[in-house]
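Chain X:
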Amino acid sequence: MQINLDKDQQKIIKIALSDAIEKYVGLSQAQEAFIHNIDNGMGMKEAEKKFKLDNRKEWEYYVYEEKNPLYCLYDYIFTSPASFRG
């Protein structure tokens, strides 16, 4: 099936999927670790670097191991941390 969406429609779908994922997970482990690291005096740049690594691992788990439909759909339509290698 091929669906053509304009930028506004893509934005709506991206926000809806992000909201659904947030409701499913709540505060992610990567987000909790980020807050904990900042609270314990880690520098912002180092905490952000650690967050990106932790967040990618979390996304890889949900996409490739758990095969969570919300994460997989987001990864299929948009570039998620699981598929982004930049």
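Chain Y:
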Amino acid sequence: MPNNKLKQLEGREVSYKELCQTLGEPIKNGKSKVAQMKEFEKYCDLERVQGTHRYLVKEVYADELVELMKSLDSPEQQLLFDAALYEAFKDNEYKPLYLSNTEMLKLFQEVNDNFSYTFNPRQLAAINRNFVYMADMGKVVYRILHKWTARKIDSMDVRRLILKKRGFRLYYLQEIDGVEYTMYRNVETGSKMEQRCQRVWVNALKEVHHVDYAMDADIKWMPEAKWNQFEDKLAELTQQEFATEGYHHIRSVLILYPMKAEDVDAMLRIVKERIGQIELINAEAKRKILGTTQLDAVCTNNQRQEFIQYNMIKNPPRWFRRG
């Protein structure tokens, strides 16, 4: 698919018909259309505009990134993810998993605990001023790995090997031996607590967007400044709603539900016979980060190696957390 044609649409909202006409592709229906849209999504970040039949072409991928995504989407890679998730369910006593986006990357052994610090340049500077470059690099690494991982999760959901939904996590402070720690509680689905979280979340969206109904207010579309406003408002409303309980913030998390224990065990045995070591996910993730040209503008080759050593291996030279 010629990228120069897609580039004409970058940043624009288009109908399905307009998309096909620009790309010189036939207009299809039903399952053929679904398959065609998935093929388009290999070349660009394409999202449905809420409440319409139009699509926003958010970003057209460079040719190198397209090839990267194709290699990451191989059947062998999918089996590795399937096995890793079955192992996680087993370790969690076959209960649902509540995962933030970063926790999802850690579950599949793509990154370690240090990676969370790359989202905060000030924290990196406090650890080592020479690590500040990791903040810009981390954004690109996160985008590549998150997109890869989300596709694998979606594939398992489509096959009904798992079921997924969005949920909430509430945060609170707790003092232990004179030290204050941030703790959290995963909110039970279908509970009154979940309904209260929904109310806080929706009210924060409405206030930040200055609307009385959260129709097109989607956090995926927020620029960084707007996102920061939303985070501040969400914290403010959380503290008001949960003043008695002492919760100070809400996060959205992904909830993954497993099959019955015996079915998970059976699937895990079958997959392991085919793939061998689950740790190959980490090896592939590191290889792609070393090879992608998407990082050329933000880091040197030596910095790539250093980033991987600190943020993507099981035992880094140093843990960034204090204490």
